[in-house]
Each structure stands twice: as C-alpha cells, then as structure tokens.
Design goal:
The chain is mainly β. It is globular and about 50 Å long. Helices cover about 0% and strands about 50% of the residues. A hairpin with a 5-residue loop joins β10 (about 160-170) and β11 (about 175-185).
Length: about 240
C-alpha cells in the first residue's frame, strides 16, 4: 500500500507553494507579461491528470461527485507563472461537457504560482444536484491552460519548500503523511490547503486529496502531519 508522489501547499492569502524551485535569477531576467509562454519560450503543460467518480460521504445526498487531479509543470528555466488559471472540462460519452452554464462549460481552477522547473499538483471535487446529471457518466477530462503572468521568481512570494515527505500506513487503509516545511516568508501561511497526489507502483497517477491543514506554516522549519485515505493500489513508498 501506500503513498504519494507529491505533496503541495495551497495557501490562503500567503502565496506559498510546494515543491523545490530552481535558484532565483536576477529581477532583470525576462519580462512580465500575460501569455501562454515565458520569455525563454517555456510554458505550463499538463504533466498528468485523472479523475474518479466518488461516493458522497452522506448517503442521503444523491449527487454526482467527481474528484479531479491535475499535475502542472513549468518548463521555463527563468520565470515563474503566477495567477495560473485552468478550465477543467468533464465529458460524457458523446463528448459533451457535463457542466454547462451561462458563463462557462467547465470548472475553473486557480493556482497562485508555479516556479521554474517545478511540478505542482492540484486537486478539487465537483458535485451536482441537477437531476438530469445524476445518471451521467464522465468518461474523459480535458484541461485548458489560460494565459498566465510570467515574472522572475524573486518577484513572487517566497516559497514554502517541502522535504522529508513520509507516509505511514494505518488501520482500515488510512495513512498518515508527515512532511517538513521551510518557509522564507516572514509571515504565517495561514490556513493552507494540502494537496496530496497518489500513484501506484508503476508511477501511474491514481488521484489525490485536497485537505484543509489545521496548522499555520510559520517562517523557518516546522514539521506537519495530515491523515488521508489513499485509493486502492496506492504505493506509499513513492513519497
């Protein structure tokens, strides 16, 4: 059994992020622009993605629930992508989006920033009480990457880097994930959200969890723990 390929922090208002960014170049490198490409031609790309149909915890709530996971990679070597916006579309057997409204045909997903060379995993859940959708089966997921603002990495919030990520199996298929954070930000990362990415022994993406972390992330080094329920066939050694 066991774990995750990645753990990322999605902060509320503090702008920190998980992963290990490349060394920050001078602020004079590159330009700031809203574009699909950085100054060196680097882009954001979907490195991996998947979805699962999930069962509501409350059996009295009869809603379609789809948990979707996206792993983004920044291929730029000199610029961070900020204000990253995605549109996730869940499609039925006919290729039609099962989510249609007056303003969008998909689910918006926003990330604070992705550093040069970094991979970043994000997880979210969609549910619908629309009776017409209760029998719809989602068979495919598409991810559209919107233009981002590209800036030198020293012009964005200092990162919260993660290390010593470990997952220990518990009772009933549960697991406890521990990790060490190093924050260069002088303030607290208040009420961060932890995204945990699960893979099997072959490296195949199985999905993820998005968990409200009960602890703030202080400046400096600190250790944290979260409890998760990995999907079947998760390899906890791939931390």
């Amino acid at each position: 059994m066991a774990a995750l390929a990645a753990v990322a922090l999605l902060p509320a208002g503090a702008g920190c992020t998980g992963g290990t960014p490349q060394p920050a170049p001078s602020k004079s490198v590159g330009i700031t622009s809203d574009s699909l490409k950085a100054a060196d031609g680097g882009t954001l790309r979907v490195a991996d993605s998947t979805f699962q149909i999930t069962t509501p915890a409350d059996t009295l709530v009869t809603k379609n629930r789809v948990k979707y996971t996206v792993v983004l990679e920044n291929t730029s070597k000199i610029q961070a992508a900020t204000g990253v916006s995605l549109m996730v579309r869940l499609l039925d057997a006919s290729g039609r989006s099962v989510i249609e409204s007056a303003i969008a045909d998909g689910l918006p997903m926003t990330l604070h920033q992705v550093y040069p060379g970094q991979r970043f995993g994000a997880v979210d859940v969609w549910s619908s009480g629309n009776p017409e959708l209760l029998g719809v089966t989602v068979i495919k997921m598409e991810v559209e990457i919107k233009p981002s603002k590209w800036v030198p990495p020293d012009q964005v919030f200092g990162p919260v880097t993660l290390s010593d990520v470990k997952a220990e199996p518990g009772a009933g298929g549960a697991a406890t994930v521990s990790f060490v954070t190093d924050s260069s930000d002088p303030g607290l990362a208040v009420s961060p959200t932890v995204s945990i990415i699960y893979r099997d022994a072959t490296g195949r993406l199985l999905g993820g969890d998005r968990i409200a972390h009960p602890d703030d992330i202080p400046q400096g080094r600190s250790t944290h723990h979260v409890s998760v329920q990995p999907p079947p066939n998760t390899d906890l050694s791939k931390t």
